[in-house]
């Protein structure tokens, strides 16, 4: 039973789902725009918002939480340096643009990007 288990499974076991979310979060923070499936994009939105909110806070505790969520100390340092970009925004740091179905398996594809 999946009682008290939040989020989508993304077609894998729990550890692989966690790894997918972590790598997608890191990829979006590094490249600021990625192409992925709609389900994965919707699942990662909350993680991205959380990391950027920590970056706006700027404390040592927030930095350590972000490093644990992203997995790269260098990437977190870059995100914290660019945090003033989101100062006037209280959430909703990502945008999802729908592209249509993927050719191979007809999975709905989207572009997930950071809002300026």
What keyword list fits this structure?
116 residues, alpha+beta, 4 helices
How would you characterize this protein structure?
Helices cover 50% and strands 17% of the residues. The model has no long low-confidence stretch (mean pLDDT 95). The chain has helices spanning 14-31, 38-57, 60-70, 73-81, and strands at 33-37, 94-101, 108-114. A three-stranded antiparallel beta sheet has the order 1-3-2, covered by helices on one side. The protein has a single domain, classed as 50s Ribosomal Protein L17, Chain: A (Alpha-Beta Complex), CATH 3.90.1030.10. The protein has four helices and three strands. The chain is α+β, with helices and mostly antiparallel strands. Helix 2 runs antiparallel to helix 3 and helix 3 packs across helix 4 (73-81).
């Amino acid at each position: 039973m999946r009682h008290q288990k939040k989020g989508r499974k993304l077609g894998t076991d729990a550890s692989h789902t966690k790894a997918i979310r972590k790598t997608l979060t890191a990829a979006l923070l590094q490249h600021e725009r990625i192409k992925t499936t709609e389900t994965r994009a919707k699942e990662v939105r909350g993680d991205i918002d959380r990391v950027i909110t920590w970056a706006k806070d700027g404390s040592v505790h927030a930095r350590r939480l972000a490093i644990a969520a992203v997995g790269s100390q260098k990437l977190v340092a870059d995100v914290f340096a660019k945090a003033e970009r989101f100062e006037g925004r209280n959430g909703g740091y990502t945008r999802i643009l729908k592209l249509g179905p993927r050719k191979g398996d007809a999975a709905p594809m989207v572009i997930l990007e950071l809002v300026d």
